[in-house]
Every structure is written in C-alpha cells, then in structure tokens.
C-alpha cells in the first residue's frame, strides 16, 4: 500500500549533466519495492505542491536508489541535498513488471532505464539492453548504465556516441520468438516498439509515462486508455502488457 514516509539521503552522485542518482534509507520501502514501482518525492518547499515521481533503480537492505534529472525548481532543490537530509515522500507507488516468461530483452529511453536496472537486479541479466539517448552530452550517463548492466548497447539520435539511431532499432534482425521484452521510455518510443514487434512478442511489458498529481489515484490526472477501459497510471500502472494499451488513444 502506498504511504507517506520520511526518507534519509545517504549518498548522491552526479551521473551526467543535470542527472543524479540518490541513495535513500527507508527500510519499509526498500524491502517492499518491486521493479517498475516508483516514489513521489517532496522537494521540501511548501510552495511546490506536486510531488516528483522518480523511478526506483535498485535496492540494497534498508536502502533504495532513485535517479532523476534537474529540470525545474523542485529537482534543483534536491541537487543541494547533503547526506543526512530528511525528506517526505510517498511510495512505493504503482504496479510492477512481472517475471519475464522467457529470455528477456530490455529497451530503455534515457531515464526509463531506472526500473529496468531494478528488474535486472531481481530477475537477472538481460540477453541485451538497448539504451537510447538524444546526444553526446549523455555519455557519462551511458557509462554509468553500462557499469550496472554490461549487456547494454547504446544508441544516440545524433550519432555522437554509440550507434546512430533509436534504441528500438536494436531489435532489428533478432529472433524474438519465445522472448520477453521489457521497456520504459517516452510513450512514442513504446508505441513504435509495439507497432513494430507487438505481433511477434507475446510478453511485451511497457512502463508508460504521464504527468502525475497526487500519486494515489484521487485526482485522475494520469488516466490512460486501455482496450478494456480507462486506468489510472499511478494505481493500475505504470506497467502494462503492451497489447492491452489503446495506442491510438494514448496521448503521445
């Protein structure tokens, strides 16, 4: 059950330009969290009412790790936190990835790699992880990911680092029969992934993205359309079987 907690920052590392990995101590959450779930963090300024949803990238004992990008006032405040800082957060929120039914391949768009790293910790290494980044400034982040998952293959929109193109191209030419695909990233990436390979892969699990409000299902701000009806991402998702999503109705 999603609850409010006080977490204690134990370490924070810059892993790229405006990109951070934070290790937080909160035993109940660290021991309950599952791959695909997230936390909603208060930056500590009462004028900032919305909590920041951040992906959990792993756990260890009483600690969990979350990664985030500095994109506004709230996350800028978080970059100033020092070890020992206590803060309010809510979690673990949302549903989780299921154990893959076959050998698994991961597809990640930038920070969408967080729940996939957690899935790797729980389910074991992927056959391959395809990571997509927009440009060469993400190279430190890509190195950080590769240090966690040696099976990572990097794609870059501009071709400055890794292979030129989109991470979904990594599946071209692969025999996907009997394999599972776990993916997280921008919704257009996930839609392209499903439209290209959804008919081949029976177990394709996707973690959708949408701006959230309360994180507890009360505000209905993160509703998405499935083929069976509308669902709240923070409660019923964010992970769904790709074949369940109404991709034509999903706001991309």
From TrEMBL:
Cofactor(s) needed: [2Fe-2S] cluster; FAD
Cofactor detail note: Binds 1 [2Fe-2S] cluster per subunit.
Assigned keywords, A-Z: 2Fe-2S, Electron transport, FAD, Flavoprotein, Iron, Iron-sulfur, Metal-binding, Transport
TM helices/strands, residue ranges: none
Residues at which [2Fe-2S] cluster binds: 214, 219, 222, 234
InterPro entries (alphabetical): Cyt_c3_hydrogenase_gsu, Dihydroorotate_DH_ele_sf, Dihydroorotate_DH_Fe-S-bd, FAD-bd_FR_type, FNR_nucleotide-bd, PyrK_electron_transfer, Riboflavin_synthase-like_b-brl
SUPFAM superfamilies: Ferredoxin reductase-like, C-terminal NADP-linked domain (SSF52343), Riboflavin synthase domain-like (SSF63380)
Domain FAD-binding FR-type: 2-99
GO BP terms in the entry: pyrimidine nucleotide biosynthetic process
Gene Ontology molecular-function annotations: 2 iron, 2 sulfur cluster binding; flavin adenine dinucleotide binding; metal ion binding; oxidoreductase activity
Residue numbers binding FAD: 67-69, 74-75
Family indicated by similarity: Belongs to the PyrK family.
PANTHER family: DIHYDROOROTATE DEHYDROGENASE B (NAD(+)), ELECTRON TRANSFER SUBUNIT, DIHYDROOROTATE DEHYDROGENASE B (NAD(+)), ELECTRON TRANSFER SUBUNIT-RELATED
Full protein name: 2-polyprenylphenol hydroxylase-like oxidoreductase
Native source organism of the sequence: Jonquetella anthropi DSM 22815
Organism ancestry: Bacteria, Thermotogati, Synergistota, Synergistia, Synergistales
């Amino acid at each position: 059950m999603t609850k409010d907690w006080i977490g204690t920052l134990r370490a924070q590392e810059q892993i790229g330009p405006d990109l951070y990995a934070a290790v937080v101590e909160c035993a109940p959450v660290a021991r309950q969290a599952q791959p695909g779930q997230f936390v909603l963090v208060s930056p500590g300024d009462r004028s900032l009412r919305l909590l920041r949803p951040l992906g959990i990238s792993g756990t260890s004992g009483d600690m969990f790790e979350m990664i985030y990008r500095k994109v506004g006032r709230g996350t800028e405040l978080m970059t100033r936190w020092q070890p020992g800082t206590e803060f309010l957060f809510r979690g673990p929120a949302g549903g989780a990835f299921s154990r893959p039914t076959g050998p698994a391949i991961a597809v990640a768009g930038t920070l969408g790699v967080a729940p996939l790293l957690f899935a790797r910790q729980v389910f074991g290494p992927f056959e391959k992880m395809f990571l997509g980044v927009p440009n060469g400034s993400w190279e430190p982040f890509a190195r950080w990911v590769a240090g966690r998952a040696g099976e990572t293959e990097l794609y870059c929109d501009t071709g400055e680092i890794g292979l030129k193109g989109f991470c979904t191209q990594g599946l071209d030419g692969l025999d996907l029969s009997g394999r599972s695909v776990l993916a997280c990233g921008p919704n257009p990436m996930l839609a392209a992934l499903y439209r290209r390979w959804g008919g081949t892969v029976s177990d394709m699990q996707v973690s959708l993205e949408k701006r959230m409000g309360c994180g507890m299902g009360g505000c209905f701000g993160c509703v998405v359309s499935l083929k069976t009806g509308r669902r709240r991402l923070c409660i019923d998702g964010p992970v769904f079987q790709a074949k369940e999503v109404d991709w034509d109705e999903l706001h991309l």
